[in-house]
Design a protein that fits this description.
Elements lengths: L7 H7 L16 H11 L11 E11 L3 H4 L9 E9 L15 E7 L7 E6 L9 H9 L11 H10 L5 H7 L3 E2 L7 E2 L4 E4 L5 E10 L5 E2 L1 H6 L5 H10 L5 E9 L1 H4 L15 E12 L2 H5 L12 E2 L5 H4 L1 H12 L1
Helix pairs in contact: 2-4, 2-12
Bound molecules: protoporphyrin IX containing FE.
């Protein structure tokens, strides 16, 4: 099925599940096959095939004074309400919260239905596990079960040797302790974004959400002692005790060369780059999951004054992929 030419597309637009500006270039992209393979690998559950386990929260997004120097976006002009979904990586809604080998997700919708509505879908690693939709499909297909119903280790090994950069995110996660709190992680939006200010000046940036309460990691023994589900209670406890639940939203300043870097690699000296704090995000309370499950978090939804990499299929294909996925999980 070609999702954009399908009779479903106008209905999906009408239901607000996808934006009208879905570019035509994606006809050649394997998006439908990716979502189908993700769903096959996660047992075709009525859940997201990525970030299946998660919880919805209310939040507040507060622009910093320096933001206006970089952007005219309404999202960074005044304080607004926000919706956040924290998740645990993978397609298993029952995955244990202390699982070390999967990422943690932070999906954000700033100023829902307001002039500043902007969305970010981030993970707690500065790089993605693939550089393109085509590589993503090959990565997933290499992991499909063989005739014996088990993944074929030789096939995965051959794929990994031919695509060594697909181990970068896993190596980063392995180098960090098991996350002890959803608000005790750094999150990155990975893609290069472009800010435009009121004078028309543009700046390439990479977003990093830095936990105000510092990183919270568990030792392996502490992780072993944790129940399968603890992250929701941990955050509810912080909210009750008025402990830090916020993030500094930091823009790492980049250039045109950085914007050409694949998503599997960090920018050169990324952690030593000049940065600008452009906002704070504060988790304010628990929200019913229907609020987060009834609509996709679409990283291409950005208020004017901020744009994603329109020529990068990895960025562009996320919207149709998420839109297909929601029709198959609800
Ligand atoms: C930098 C690249 C990417 C990152 C950081 C990322 C991260 C995430 C996160 C955090 C979620 C959970 C979303 C939620 O909480 O609702 C998610 C869901 C998903 N991702 Fe991605 N993703 C990336 C690229 C892609 C691409 C290129 C595809 C396929 C072409 C894809 C397919 C999916 C699908 C199908 C879902 C489930 C969406 C839903 O059912 O609402 N992702 N991703």
């Amino acid at each position: 099925m070609n999702f954009r030419t399908s009779t479903a597309f106008p209905a999906l637009v009408a239901m607000g599940l996808v934006g009208l500006h879905a570019p035509a270039m994606a006809q050649s992209q394997p998006t439908e096959a990716i979502v189908e393979t993700m769903r096959t690998l996660s047992g075709k559950q009525k859940a997201r095939p990525s970030g299946a386990k998660g919880q919805c929260f209310t939040a507040r997004f507060t622009p910093a004074a320096d933001a206006a120097k970089l952007t005219k976006s309404a999202a960074f002009a005044k304080e607004s309400a926000a919706i956040v979904r924290f998740s645990v990586g993978g397609g298993n809604p029952k995955v244990a919260d202390a699982t070390k080998t999967v990422n943690r997700g932070l999906s954000l919708r700033i100023d829902p239905n307001g002039p500043g509505q902007s969305e970010f879908v981030m993970v707690n690693a500065p790089v993605n596990f693939v550089r393109s939709p085509a590589q993503m499909l090959a990565f997933l297909q290499a992991r499909l079960p063989g005739a014996d119903g088990k993944p074929d280790a030789e096939k995965i090994k051959a794929f990994t040797e031919a695509n060594p950069e697909t181990t970068n995110q896993g190596k980063y996660l392995a180098s960090k302790p098991v996350p002890g709190s959803w608000v005790g992680q750094n999150y990155w939006a990975i893609h290069p974004y472009t800010f435009t200010n009121a004078q028309g000046a543009q700046q390439i940036v990479k977003f990093r959400f830095v936990p105000q309460g510092g990183e919270v990691g568990l030792t392996d023994d502490e992780a072993k002692a944790k129940p399968a589900d603890f992250l929701v209670d941990e955050l509810k406890g912080r909210l009750a005790d008025k402990k830090p639940t916020g993030f500094d939203v930091v823009a790492i300043l980049g250039n045109a060369a950085d914007a050409q870097k694949p998503a599997t690699e960090q920018w050169t000296d990324e952690d030593k780059r000049p940065t600008v704090k452009v906002a704070t995000l504060t988790i304010t309370g628990l929200e019913k999951n229907e609020t987060c499950d009834g609509q996709i978090f679409d990283p291409t939804t950005l208020a004017d004054g901020l744009a994603g990499p329109k020529n990068d299929p990895l960025f562009v294909e996320r919207q149709p992929a998420y839109a297909i996925s929601i029709t198959q999980r609800n």
